[in-house]
Amino acid sequence: MLLANGTRRVAGETGAESLSTGPVKSRSRVRAAVATLGSLRSLASGLREEGPLLVSKKTLKRVVAILLTFSFVASLRFYRLDELQGEWYGDISTLYEYVQAVRDHNFPPDLYNLGVGPLYPLVLSPILAVLGETYLGIKCAAALFSLFGLFVLFLLCRRLQGTGFALVATMVAGTGSWLLVFSRLGDIQALVLLFTVGPLALAAHVIETRPVHGATATLCGFMTGSSLYLYGAAFAVPALITLVMVAFHFFTPEPRRYERRHLWLYFVALTLAVLPMALSYLRSPEAVAQGHFATRLVRGRGAVSTVAGNFAEALLAYVTVGDVNSRANPPLLPHIDRLSLLMVVLGCVFWLGRSRRRWGFVLMGGFLLMHAPSILAESAGANAGRTIAAAPFAYILAAEGSGASQLLFSAYWEVQRARRRWRCS
Questions:
Q1: What is the pTM of this model?
Q2: Digit-coded pLDDT (tens) for 353-374
Q3: Can you list the positions of beta strands (E) in 292-374?
Q4: For the chain, is the Cβ count within 10 Å smaller at the N or the C terminus?
């Protein structure tokens, strides 16, 4: 039936839905709903790909891998820590006396004479105020220092080669007996790891990052100078970091060279950090000349042959028998196991590749230079404590060797598959 305005009404229906225009409006609503759903779907897809609040599966896997790695190396350091190592020995007694001196505000020059140095008691004292001045508290603090050092090593390796390589290096270093033993003893070597890889990680950040804040170069210089106050094993760290900062500035092409002001900031902070030690020497040079380290330095006509012999013994400690002190090294074993030694050699070869050569020289040179505190001493024999600063370099090289061996095995099996296909064809 036709209405007066020409609109058709179907018999038996009333209202707007009975108009012939109803199907047209329904189709338009369906199209609008489909378009809205498409917009929502594209928006959700964009949030999954680019949204800052949602974590991708790849990132989640990396976070889980990092947490599992550090949980495992932490468990090795705290497992039965109250029993192993359980012996309170002479170096811990000296350290405890220094902690009490710090608590009583008895600062240098007294702390400059013996081998512990002033930095470790200064850092340890507030921690023991919380954990308790017991041997277990000292060992817990050393384990925490070791874990912090491993975290900085992870950041350094991540800067050099990426997260995957950093995880491998952290696992290798965290499970190696060399760093593990000293992380459970409570002695000063637990902090040497942090003040070895820390300045190097900061230097790598200054050299490789654009733009970089001047505070990073300042902190690098201050931490490098502070490593001198650990004494012994860390004496060669300022020489290495200074060589790295100077070499990467003056021997790097202009587009990749870091700014000159960062080099000046590094040297200013380094000078300020070393100044208290220099003033202490000027105030009482005889105390330094008759101190713990000066009396143990190689001197006399046979100094060259003694240094050469000590260097040979230090390198043989990785092949035959390491430190004979069972507290510092497993009896009759080298400082690193034979498989790790093979990985170190393989890693040296791969770090000399064109894309990694610059930092390869730093790692291998640092590994050799960190033996200086041991080879310059009169006492013969391998010493795991004096060369503890070389451990992170050895483990980084070993981590690169393990990755290189995986590439070699993958290439070998690909060649074997290709040969089988060629024979079958």
A1: 0.82
A2: 877 889 999 999 999 999 998 8
A3: none
A4: C
